[in-house]
Design brief:
- The structure is a single chain.
- The protein has 143 residues and is mostly helical.
- Among the domains are: 48 residues, no CATH class; 44 residues.
- It is 65% helix and 0% strand.
- The longest helix has 27 residues.
Length: 143
């Protein structure tokens, strides 16, 4: 059996091609206005509420105004706390990898929690003592 030596042009002439007709569009569809989905008015952007901004600036001045807390002191405290927290985390991670210490830490935690409940939470008068101690601490810290 020998291969057929027909050329591509000869094969293309023998294949029937379907006739493609363009779609028919009615004249009324062409002349329809295209503004049916566009809103009639475009809403204007709302300005920043100046009343809220005034409240924020007033609260800022009340907290950080003249004779109040210093912004620099707060910034230094926050920035200094970050490396301290990182170092503490690294130290605790190291101690947690030691074989016996995690179990000892758990026992110490359970013991202290039990003592705290016994000392401050079981009786009403000791709960009042705890509440007074917390109120005194808050007064001392926050002024």
């Amino acid at each position: 059996m020998e291969p057929n030596e027909d050329t591509v042009e000869e094969i293309a002439e023998t294949v029937e091609r379907p006739k493609i007709t363009p779609p028919v569009i009615a004249v009324s569809e062409v002349t329809k206005p295209l503004t049916s989905n566009i809103p009639e008015t475009i809403p204007e952007p709302t300005p920043v509420n100046s009343e809220i901004w005034q409240q924020v600036t007033q609260a800022w001045e009340e907290y950080f105004g003249k004779g109040k807390k210093s912004n620099i002191t707060i910034a230094v405290t926050v920035i200094a706390a970050i490396p301290i927290l990182i170092a503490t985390s690294a130290l605790l991670d190291f101690l947690n990898k030691l074989p016996l210490l995690p179990s000892v830490f758990e026992l110490v935690g359970f013991g202290y929690s039990g003592w705290f409940v016994y000392r401050y939470l079981l009786l009403a008068n000791t709960r009042e003592e705890l509440i007074e101690a917390i109120a005194a601490w808050k007064q001392k810290v926050f002024g």
